[in-house]
Amino acid sequence: MRAAADWLGVSVATVCYQVAYIRRLPKQFVEWLETDASDPFHEILLERRLREIVKLCDEEKTTAISDLIVACKTAANEPQIQFLDELIDSVTK
Fold it and tell me: Considering the entire predicted model, what is its pTM?
């Protein structure tokens, strides 16, 4: 954690909080965030939005993530839309 904090120029506590938030998100969604496919949507996938989502219960979290992915679809091209549809299906199962 110290190395990540130093590299990012933030405190270890900040890194720990971010890791805790990420661990509360659905696995399929985190895997997508780790890919280059999510890059065009970084303006939509703000840390502030994800932080609010992880505070929700499981059913509400799934709905909120689906809504966020739908928001990404408005800025997507056709292949990205198909992929985002599949991502919604995998997160809501």
Answer: 0.64
